[in-house]
Amino acid sequence: MATGILAVGLEAAGHPLPALAALAVACLSWLALAVDVAARLLREPRRRLREAGTPGALTGVAATAVLGTGFSVVGLHAAAVVPLVPAALLWPWLIVDVVRTARRPMPGTVFLCCVATQGLAVLGVSVAAAGAVAWLAHTALVFFWLGLALYLFAPSRCDLRQVTAGRGDQWVAGGAPAISAVAGAKLIAASRAGPYLWNADDAAVLRTTTLGLLALGLCWYAVLLLAEPVRPRPGCDPRRWATVFPMGMTAAAALSVAAALDVPGLRVAGEVLLWVAVAAWPAVAACAGAQARGGQVQSTAMKMFTMVSRPTRPNMPLSAFSSSRFT
After folding, report:
1. Into how many domains does the chain fold?
2. Per-residue pLDDT, 316
3. Domain that holds residue 244
4. What is the crossing angle of helices 2-12 and 16-43, to 10°?
5. pLDDT digit string, tens, across residues 136-180
6. Is the pTM of this model over 0.90?
7. Rounded to an integer, what distance in angstroms lies between the CA atom of residue 146 and that of residue 59?
8. What is the domain-level CATH number for residue 215?
9. Is the confidence at residue 230, as pLDDT, over 80?
10. Could you tell me what percent of the chain has a pLDDT over 70?
11. DSSP secondary structure of 272-309
12. Average pLDDT over the chain, rounded to an integer
């Protein structure tokens, strides 16, 4: 997810070659994880299916949608349709279980309910805009509003103390409004470039909502960033991938809204945030590599459905949680 969104942001900022390189890395990572998860599902089907009811399982939907969006932004529109199908098929099965079983207090990954839903909205409208498919754009609009409803649901299950205690995955709370803003910006752009989609009043509501979501995402970014030195959390932790992803998503949101609403100042802010995320990626990658060489990290795919998605407990060490899946 972190690598895929950097590809989207780099393309939006006008850096096609780095975007293609990031997209290639994201593709290889996605394939490796898919094979490993499938193998583990065959070996331990009951356990893996049980863990699929946790919020972390929605990472599969979100990551697949981000990968498809990456294909779309670099011009591979036909390839973007391929990830849309499995992501759309997985989403209803996972989201029902997650909403039904989520209990307070949860880590920041509970906001993946919103992220996965908005990821489908972003990918859906990207495919719709490329092929002028009105029904798909309308479906993406439904997912956009549903994602916002799920964003309002998530705080009722999230342990907000994670803002200062989390080891990286608390940043997903800021990534949720950011990806929602990206979805809104793409819906606005699609209505201008393709067939008639909605009237002027609907478009005005969409513009206002999108700007509000971007403002909320930027506020979350500032709060989470300030919380880092207030409660320093040094050392390597695979959950830091869940920090890089919202950083990149906030940058992509600013760039997308700047283009859709013609606000040049937001483009400058988006590029600054993008390079911050780009700088964070190798730092987290190097740290993860050092841990892997030291034998301190299990297989990334095995952690796809681990304790990161389960309710926190006072006597449970923070090291029980992992977000390496956000790579």
Report:
1. 1
2. 42
3. 2-326
4. 160
5. 999 999 999 999 999 999 988 888 888 988 888 999 999 999 999
6. no
7. 17
8. 1.50.10.150
9. yes
10. 87
11. HHHHHHHHHHHHHHHHHHHHHHTT-S--TGGGGGSGGG
12. 86
